[in-house]
């Protein structure tokens, strides 16, 4: 039997972790960030490095694998790792301060620079990584529906989700324009100057396209009665996986244990 349109637009996920309600995922993200800041205050080695942030980051790929979304997350996690590596290099070799730890020719490593590099880079990796898991396992319409269900104004929910969608739309349009430039014989690959020379002329059609699409989007919304006051009808219904309470309880317990461990280290 052929499914109706309403049945086709519903989201059904076999993985219980990926199918968690967005508010539960947000709770996990917030508690993970809290634990990250707590663990970041624990300093080991004689220099006082926040090395415990490194094994703590393992929780992110574990969550991605358990959610069945590791392939979707790996590209974003690689980008986060590149940013963290740049921060480590800049902070370690270019920021002076504190005791001189190592000198190799013109390269010097100071205590302050090394401590800041480890702490800042892995703090960013942990926080950005957990957000990668959140957005790669949750569709924009799930977030919008959960926002409206929580009592948020539907206009604010739409602005938030449309902002997320706009990033993806602009990225696709940019690739389309660059491919069109390449088809016309414009050189788009090479060093940074060649790429910049090809990229900046593509900004005009990209911006104009965004303006035109926003106007079309407004007309579409008005045709659907977006600005009319009153109760809204939703064709898309957000389902729960049934593991929300267990997941929230586990996240809270882990946070309490991390906090208790940190307090114990302070006392000791």
From TrEMBL:
<dbReference type="InterPro" id="IPR003339">
    <property type="entry name" value="ABC/ECF_trnsptr_transmembrane"/>
</dbReference>
<dbReference type="InterPro" id="IPR051611">
    <property type="entry name" value="ECF_transporter_component"/>
</dbReference>
<keyword id="KW-0812">Transmembrane</keyword>
<dbReference type="GO" id="GO:0005886">
    <property type="term" value="C:plasma membrane"/>
</dbReference>
<feature type="transmembrane region" description="Helical">
    <location>
        <begin position="51"/>
        <end position="70"/>
    </location>
</feature>
<feature type="transmembrane region" description="Helical">
    <location>
        <begin position="116"/>
        <end position="135"/>
    </location>
</feature>
<keyword id="KW-0472">Membrane</keyword>
<dbReference type="Pfam" id="PF02361">
    <property type="entry name" value="CbiQ"/>
</dbReference>
<keyword id="KW-1133">Transmembrane helix</keyword>
<feature type="transmembrane region" description="Helical">
    <location>
        <begin position="77"/>
        <end position="96"/>
    </location>
</feature>
<protein>
    <submittedName>
        <fullName>Energy-coupling factor transporter transmembrane protein EcfT</fullName>
    </submittedName>
</protein>
<feature type="transmembrane region" description="Helical">
    <location>
        <begin position="248"/>
        <end position="267"/>
    </location>
</feature>
<keyword id="KW-1003">Cell membrane</keyword>
<feature type="transmembrane region" description="Helical">
    <location>
        <begin position="26"/>
        <end position="45"/>
    </location>
</feature>
């Amino acid at each position: 039997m052929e499914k109706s349109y309403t049945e086709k637009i519903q989201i059904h996920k076999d993985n219980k972790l990926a199918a968690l309600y967005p508010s539960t995922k947000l709770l996990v993200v917030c508690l993970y960030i809290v634990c990250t800041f707590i663990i970041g205050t624990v300093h080991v080695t004689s220099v006082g490095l926040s090395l415990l942030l490194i094994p703590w980051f393992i929780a992110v790929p574990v969550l991605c694998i358990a959610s069945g979304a590791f392939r979707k997350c790996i590209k974003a996690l690689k980008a986060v790792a590149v940013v963290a590596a740049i921060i480590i290099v800049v902070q370690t070799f270019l920021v002076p301060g504190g005791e001189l730890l190592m000198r190799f020719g013109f390269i010097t490593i100071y205590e302050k620079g090394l401590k800041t590099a480890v702490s800042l880079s892995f703090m960013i990796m942990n926080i950005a990584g957990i957000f990668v898991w959140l957005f790669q396992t949750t569709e924009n319409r799930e977030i919008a529906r959960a926002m409206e269900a929580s009592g948020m104004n539907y206009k604010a929910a739409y602005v938030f989700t449309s902002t997320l969608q706009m990033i993806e739309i602009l990225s696709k349009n940019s690739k389309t324009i660059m491919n069109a430039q390449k088809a016309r014989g414009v050189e788009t690959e090479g060093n940074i100057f060649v790429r910049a020379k090809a990229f900046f002329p593509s900004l005009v059609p990209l911006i104009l396209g965004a303006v035109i699409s926003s106007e079309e989007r407004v007309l579409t919304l008005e045709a659907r009665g977006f600005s009319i006051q009153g109760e809204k009808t939703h064709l898309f219904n957000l389902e729960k996986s049934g593991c929300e309470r267990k997941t929230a309880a586990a996240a809270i317990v882990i946070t309490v244990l991390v906090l208790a461990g940190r307090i114990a280290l302070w006392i000791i």
